What we know:
Blueprint: H1 9-18, H2 23-52, E1 66-69, E2 78-85, E3 91-98, E4 115-125, E5 128-136, E6 141-149, E7 155-162, E8 167-177, E9 187-195, E10 202-208, E11 226-232, E12 236-237, E13 243-250, E14 255-257, E15 269-271, E16 286-292, E17 297-298, E18 311-314, E19 323-332, H3 333-336, E20 343-351, E21 360-361, E22 365-369
Amino acid sequence: MKLCPMVPRHSRLRLRSKHPPRLPVMKNIFLRLLPAFFAAVILNFAACAAATSPAPATTPAADVGRLEIYDFMTQNGTIARRTFLDGAGRVSKEIYYTMFSARRSASGTPPEEMAIGSQVLYHYENGRLVSTEAFDGAMKPQGSQHYEYGPDGEVIREWSLRADGTKEFETRRAAQPTPSRFPSIRGRALTELYFDATGTRLLNLRGELPADIDLPQGWGSSAANLACGIVLSRERGRPEQIQVHVSLKNTDAPRLPAVGGGSGGFGGTVPAPLVPPLNNDAMGAAEFILRDARGSQVAERTLLPDKEAHYVYLRNADLRPGTAGVISPEYELASRFPSLAPGRYTLRLRLTVPGRAASVLSNEVVLTVE
């Protein structure tokens, strides 16, 4: 058996002190450096992510539009308008403000006492305005306006719809562009059509007579180159619910040769004006001929209430052949017959026209009083 050499005690002690164990020391150093290492890794990762990620987009400033405060209040109480433009520089929205005590605001924002009265939205297709929508201050729909364009880019037809989508009004324009204060609506207005609450029955027309639509019950017989047509706002109801709409047209005045070669829109001739001329004049007396189901005429009210005079409004300078005018305002049936018994009636009007000895008798319409 081989024995280990004896080592003096003091030699063993020196050996321990000269060659101490290294593992505990290295472990302590590693544990101390570990948090710093991980912190450095995290910071480096964050720096790389910041370098490769796009910068957050800044929120664009809200478009507040351009505010214009009027010097004077309009008839409907509007005192200011705010206009918004789209990316193409076209009007996209308008806000109208109403309130009696509005003050000017140096900051450009509406004062607290200004309230939104109405709003209008504009819609475009292929660079053209095709419709506008109107809303009240609470964004409740009030109606819309629509436009149809001709081959040369001019508006040839425009119509208004009520909030429920029924047609209220239509304007037809000439194909040839003419100067106008509305750059996009250059065609000369030819005909205006007014519809009832259903949007299907024509109540009045003004301007040139169209070939595709006419008063539903036609016109009365011609007298002194004039004919009268009447339409009821509704054919059933109480007397206070029924209004009588009246149109007047020139039937057969002669045509004159064109002056200077111009057609005037009438196929090479210029129609002779009505003689004596009739231009936005006050109408004379209107006699209501109302008969019951037995054919008996119902007496009119002897003393009529004070009411605005009735006028004939024309699209042309005078009532030329092939054109019509509107008597405004419409006549109220209840003002002539306040207490009609329920039943079926027929109605005609006999109009006295200024400057003419002969009166004009309208067509006949049928109504039912409930």
